[in-house]
Structures are given as structure tokens and as C-alpha cells.
């Protein structure tokens, strides 16, 4: 199995993998969403949903008797790209992708109106050769379709060995479904996530992967 630097190309998730936001912003967003749907989110619930702890978010919402469609409609009404960007930061261990000597692409569930201001504000857009924000048309991870779209944009060959790294089980699933190695970056700990996510590599951060 190749070590991190030996991959011919890299695909990355964005939120929770390369960048994240300050906790206070998460609480403000969920307070506003809760006002719209008539639900009082606790601090723990907000963090579980924001970071995808405990599995797929829609399943978690249903366990709390929250209609996923109503939640996401309110969530997208509340989230503002400029405010999100103003409270975002880059994980220090992800800064190595500014200088990785290989094609690097992003495939993210973050919508373009949120992702693009973050990339601009943090001055990291030029780290990536292509960025795809998933939609119903592109498909959503673990569907391999958006992954393969990014691979096509990068112009990778069939004989090249690539990897997709992300912080959720859907990232590893998308990698495997597209024939890539999958890296799970567990920034919150398996105990807090409530599960262990399988992967070709399971690491706490990119420093551990590249060590």
C-alpha cells in the first residue's frame, strides 16, 4: 500500500478535512435554524450534525424526529457564505497541500455559495487544480460520479494511483466506489463519532499520514 506522498493524485473533502469553522459560528447557525423549524438544538446536537458525528446526517435528524427536508431548507436559508468564510480556518496539517507535487482536486458537499467564499477568504483556491461542489445533478458521495468527474477534470490516467481523503464514511465509500484508496481523517475521535470508519488509512490528521 503506498504511503501518502506516493500517490499520483489527491482528491480531498473540504469541510472538516481541509477547513473548519469556529464553534461559536456553529451554535449561531443552529440557533437560527431551530427558530425556523421550532426545535431547540443543544450544543452537542449542533456539533453532531455539523461534523457528521454518528453517521449520516439525515438518519440522525430522523432519530430526533426532525424532518430532514425542512431542516436543510432552513439551514440553507440561514447559512451565509461571507459569514461562514469569516469564521473559517485551515487545519495546519492540511497546509502541506499547498506544495504537494501532484494534481489535487476537491469534491465537497459544501455548496458553491459557501465553498467559494471560504476558498477565497483563506487564500487557498490555488492549492487545488479543480473544485467540485456536489449537487443533485453531479451526485453525492458515496456515489462515485462526482469523484470520477473530478478525476476527469484532473486528466488522470487509468494506470495512476489516486486517493480520496475525508472526515466522513461517505468519503471513504466514494473513494472505494470509484476505485481509489480511501483515507479517513478522524479529527474528533472514534468515541465521539460513535463508530470506527474503515479506510485504507485511518489517521488523526495529515501529519500522521505523511509521517
Describe the structure using short key phrases.
hydrolase; HAD_sf; two-stranded antiparallel sheet; single chain; hydrolase activity; globular; 211 residues; HAD family hydrolase; 6-stranded parallel β-sheet; Rossmann fold; alpha/beta; 10 helices
Structural features, described:
The chain has helices at residues 23-37, 43-51, 57-63, 68-78, 81-86, 112-121, 145-154, 169-177, 190-193, 206-210, and strands at 9-12, 19-21, 88-90, 104-108, 130-133, 162-166, 181-185, 201-203. The longest helix is centred in the first third of the chain and has 15 residues, at 23-37. The strands form 2 sheets. It has a 6-stranded parallel sheet with strand order 5-4-1-6-7-8. The protein has a two-stranded antiparallel ribbon with strand order 2-3. The mean pLDDT is 92. Strand 4 (104-108), helix 6 (112-121) and strand 5 form a beta-alpha-beta unit. By secondary structure, the chain is an alpha/beta fold. It starts with 8 loop residues before the first strand and ends with a helix.
Amino acid at each position: 500500500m503506498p504511503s501518502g506522498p506516493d500517490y499520483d493524485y489527491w482528491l480531498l473533502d473540504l469541510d472538516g478535512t481541509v477547513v473548519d469553522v469556529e464553534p461559536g459560528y456553529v451554535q449561531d447557525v443552529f440557533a437560527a435554524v431551530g427558530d425556523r423549524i421550532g426545535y431547540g438544538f443543544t450544543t452537542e446536537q449542533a456539533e453532531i450534525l455539523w461534523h457528521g458525528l454518528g453517521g449520516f446526517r439525515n438518519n440522525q435528524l430522523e432519530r430526533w424526529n426532525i424532518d430532514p427536508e425542512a431542516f436543510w431548507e432552513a439551514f440553507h436559508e440561514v447559512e451565509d457564505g461571507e459569514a461562514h468564510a469569516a469564521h473559517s480556518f485551515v487545519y495546519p496539517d492540511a497546509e502541506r497541500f499547498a506544495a504537494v507535487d501532484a494534481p489535487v482536486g476537491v469534491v465537497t458537499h459544501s455548496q458553491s455559495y459557501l465553498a467559494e467564499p471560504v476558498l477565497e477568504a483563506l487564500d487557498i483556491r490555488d492549492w487545488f487544480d479543480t473544485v467540485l461542489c456536489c449537487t443533485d445533478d453531479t451526485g453525492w458521495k458515496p456515489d462515485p460520479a462526482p469523484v470520477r468527474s473530478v478525476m476527469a477534470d484532473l486528466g488522470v490516467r487509468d494506470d495512476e494511483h489516486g486517493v480520496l481523503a475525508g472526515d466522513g464514511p461517505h468519503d471513504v465509500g466514494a473513494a472505494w466506489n470509484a476505485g481509489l484508496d480511501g483515507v479517513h481523517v478522524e479529527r474528533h475521535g472514534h468515541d465521539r463519532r460513535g463508530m470506527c470508519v474503515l479506510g485504507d488509512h485511518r489517521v488523526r490528521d495529515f501529519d500522521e499520514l505523511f509521517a
